[in-house]
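Lecture 7 notes: from sequence to structure.

We start with a single chain of 503 residues. Read the sequence below before looking at the structure.
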Amino acid sequence: MFRATCLVVFTSLTIAADTGQLNTQLLSNAQHAEEPASLLWIASEQGSQQAQQQLHDFAEQKQDGYWLEKLIGLGYAPAALTLSRIEDNPRISQRLVRLAARGGVAQAQYEFALSRDDYSHRASWLTAAAEQGLFEAQTALADWYLLYQQPELAEPWLAQTADTDPQSAFQLAYLRWQHGEKEEAKALFEFAAEHEHEEAAEVLSVLNRYQPVSVSALRNQLASSLPDNWLTAQCRQRMQPLATGLAEMVQADRIFRQFKRDRRLQSLSLCVATPQWLADNTMRCDANWRGQGRLGCDIRPLAETVEANNITHLMVLAQSGKANVNNGVMYLDVGDTYSVFVHELAHFVGFVDEYPLTAGLAREYCSRKTAPNLVFLGEITYAPLDNIAQWQAIEFPVRLYPARTCHNIRQPSYKPSERMTFLENHDAKYIPPLYLSIWQQRLNDPGVQRTVSMNLFQTFQRAKQTEQAAFWLERVRQEKAAFLPLPAEPAPDETLIDPDLTP
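Now the structure, written as tokens:
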């Protein structure tokens, strides 16, 4: 066989004097040879790209590292990527991918990009592959830009893949919607939904059931949509969810539907009204509200709506920011799930987190000792003893287990649950029956809650709108007087504290 191959090569050399004719003859002979590699190699050395590709394909099929290495020596970059697939040493394999990427192989550029975590390197290598038309690189590049909140850079790439990729169509639809191109956005959502994109179908469902509403129209619209038992004892806590945009409305609707199905909370006398979609620029929100590193909004435009519809609590879903509860208002962003909502909901009645608080928050909460789910080790016994007495009245005997709430100030604290609860990790989802009983007792006692009226009082006071502040302060007094003796007027310094702020 070897002698026959040599004879073919010798004959070719004598027949053809120029390289072009030689390569043509070698390629032709290779098609009929049982072992074409040596013929293809000679043509490859002569610069025949066709021969290099055919030799590469042959070596790839045979998993032949020898010929792949030879091709790499000629500078044929695709061979480096192929060799990386059969190389056992991960470090060598990674070097081969990098070599292929530098040689302009789109697939290698894409794979090498994914191995880089720094923003600029990944973006540059994905761009190199995307510009060669590699679909995976185009979609990955768009995702990378979206991750770093650069939608203007992602949008052109999404536009290139949206015709065939439902996820790209879905992402592009949101960007078009934000630009005010509502009809085009809806068409993109429909395309994605037709191709079994579940989130797109959910968006279309929301668009069919909700429309943005102005503040002036919100007051009357709510009046016709509130539950029939809104003003009864079954609704001690009356929450109105509000969304500031389309993505936020989708999440608000999702949370609302999950709440309606949540059997854990059905015994509690708290009610959640149908979410409402606020028109653009209804109120100002910021992910770093007043420089406190948390999500917040100026809720003053909602004051008349709160008053007219006897709302005690608000849930505001905004684009981004850290979830927290602040005096009758829960703030969530589009990434916060239903389990986060339930976790934050418990803060409305004073439950404190059971994970380690920051030192500053731990000093505040652990010194006050007002959390209904914790007791603290004192010099002689546990404090407050009222908590233990209350727990024992509900469930006897009560056993105490270490809690991590005050870990960062080395203050021993204890909870009446051996299992991890939803207050330690919202994904745990476990709400002990004892906690539900405590929750209901506190719902019956507005004295331990802070409603949105307190928030509005503070907000108007901070804005030096004294007339409105006085109105909401009086409303706070009225809400407490309905169940408790009339309290003294709260001192300004006390009312500016955010005791329900969660980390």
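The longest strand covers residues 237-243. Keep this in mind for problem set 3.
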